[in-house]
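Researcher: Go.
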Amino acid sequence: MNLIWEVSLTEFALVTLVLGGLAAWMTGRAVALTWGSWLRLAVYIALLSLAVRFIHYSLFGGTFLLPPVGFATGLHYYVVDFIALMLIAAAARQMNRSHQMSEQYSFLYNRSGPFGWKRKV
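Model: Structure:
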């Protein structure tokens, strides 16, 4: 039993990081473009994590949330998926927010790297 992936590393990378990661990136971008909060992003990623867990369960024989052994195992992999997807979505949100702040408020802010902005002097 591995702490990060349940069935195989390839399956985790394909389903969680590639398919779920692309959806998380677009979710983070959408939340940033609508000026949504971090809480809204967390709720959306919690729902996306359920969908990713269902794909693990239905296509690859993983656990959903209630495995035969006990609740803790399925919940553990849900949390792992949530953390991975939230990191990807947070990066997308912050990158887009940085772009928004430097473009929309160009008289106040300059872009400072891909994830930040700073006040003009």
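Model: Helices lie at 9-33, 38-60, 71-104.
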